[in-house]
Fold:
Amino acid sequence: MRSFRKDWPGFRGRPGHGFGPETSVNGLFNVGDSVNPPTFYGVSGAAESARDVARKIVSSSS
Ligand SMILES: Cc1cc2nc3c(=O)[nH]c(=O)nc-3n(C[C@H](O)[C@H](O)[C@H](O)COP(=O)(O)OP(=O)(O)OC[C@H]3O[C@@H](n4cnc5c(N)ncnc54)[C@H](O)[C@@H]3O)c2cc1C
Structure:
């Protein structure tokens, strides 16, 4: 069982207030917590950010 003290660690990434997926390294993208698309947060936000990047990679390779 885990325990958390001091600041609550969950939901640090506010929807629409984190990083974008782009990085300075060609072909490397940020996904997950803190890359939440607007209106998504938590696990679903992390998954949607990965889905967005996957779509971007697939569309750029076709
Ligand atoms: C207590 C708590 C309760 C939560 N409850 C909910 C909930 O009910 N519903 C909900 O939607 N969200 C909830 N969340 C938020 C949710 O857990 C996160 O938004 C989600 O897990 C983010 O997914 P992620 O893959 O971006 O990051 P993470 O799940 O944090 O995964 C990151 C992974 O990277 C690994 N890692 C870190 N550094 C390195 C390194 N240098 N090299 C290799 N690996 C590394 C870590 O070990 C970890 O496995 C909760 C969070 C907490 C803390």
Notes: Helices lie at 42-61.
